[in-house]
Amino acid sequence: MPDGKIMLFCKGADSIIYSRLRRGEQPELRRATAEHLELFAREGLRTLCIAQRELAEEEYQLWNKQHDIAASSVQDRDEKLEKISDAIERELTLLGGTAIEDRLQDGVPDAIALLASAGIKLWVLTGDKVETAINIGFSCNLLSTEMDLIVFKVDEDKPERAGAELDRLLATFNKTGSDEELKAAKKNHEPPAPTHALVIDGDSLKHVLDDELRQKFLLLCKECKSVLCCRVSPSQKAAVVQMVKNGLDVITLSIGDGANDVAMIQEAHVGVGIAGEEGRQAVMSSDYAIGQFRFLTRLVLVHGRWSYRRLAETIANFFYKNIVWTF
């Protein structure tokens, strides 16, 4: 700052920022901010919290050295950077919340409807609040009023409830989460009936991505037409893609427009980046770059189809050529 002070400013989801605030301070501001964010989210606005903390010179210099070491490490760089950031993002003071209107691009609902009718299953992995994600889900044809909305929520204090809740939900579909059901799910590529949609937040996702519960969660998602994962971190986005890719043995495609989508784009078989307001990070790490979301339908259903046919004909030609040469 101009007066020589060193200030740390943090922005992030309310669930993350609130857990890092100094205990016992600003109860009124916290309550008022939480109420406002809830109000904004219901209107479909994208919300964030902002907090700050003053750092001592020695504390900053020590942290900066450790940060430089983590940033230049070759192995596990992301994990080390996250750990070192986590060390300093503590004892914060809340400044307030922000909300912006982030309108959907033209043609997004039609593109999603077309992809769904082509038999492609759509998952939304977002950092938004649950209410915002549900609003966006309705506005872009992922959710409909006829669907039963399953909101999966596990209390932070009672993580053991996650398994029981999964069993209860699976029982409504006459499933138990066994290995035989997973084998059957791998073979069955028919899209599920559009009767159920699942909404889950990042805190609950942390529990269900555990090795013991992952299979049950995957089978539950298989029964739902749409899956919305809200308030998820970039690493959780990649973990969900990995779970689907390895668990169901299917071809996955990730599409995103910002730096927080990079992990997910790189994890999927095919990564698509959208160039635009959020910069070029997603585009730089993807296999294909497009200007708007609606171009995805043409990329997948037209150019994807042509590429598939060309490849099939090429393989047949090579096979024929080799037989001719051999004989």
UniProtKB/TrEMBL annotation:
Keywords, alphabetical: ATP-binding, Magnesium, Membrane, Metal-binding, Nucleotide-binding, Translocase, Transmembrane, Transmembrane helix, Transport
EC class of the enzyme, as a word: translocase
Q: State the Gene3D superfamilies in the record.
A: Calcium-transporting ATPase, cytoplasmic domain N (3.40.1110.10), HAD superfamily/HAD-like (3.40.50.1000)
Where found in the cell?
Answer: Endomembrane system; Membrane
Does the keyword Translocase belong to this entry? Answer: yes
What EC designation does it have?
Answer: 7.6.2.1
Q: Where is the P-type ATPase C-terminal domain?
A: 283-327
Catalytically driven reaction(s)? ATP + H2O + phospholipidSide 1 = ADP + phosphate + phospholipidSide 2; a 1,2-diacyl-sn-glycero-3-phosphoethanolamine(out) + ATP + H2O = a 1,2-diacyl-sn-glycero-3-phosphoethanolamine(in) + ADP + phosphate + H(+)
A Pfam family found in this protein is Cation_ATPase
Checking InterPro entries in the record gives: ATPase_P-typ_cyto_dom_N (IPR023299), HAD-like_sf (IPR036412), HAD_sf (IPR023214), P-type_ATPase_IV (IPR006539), P_typ_ATPase (IPR001757), P_typ_ATPase_c (IPR032630)
Topology in the membrane? Answer: Multi-pass membrane protein
Which family is annotated? Belongs to the cation transport ATPase (P-type) (TC 3.A.3) family. Type IV subfamily.
Report the protein name in the record. Answer: Phospholipid-transporting ATPase
Q: What organism does the UniProt record list as the source?
A: Cryomyces antarcticus
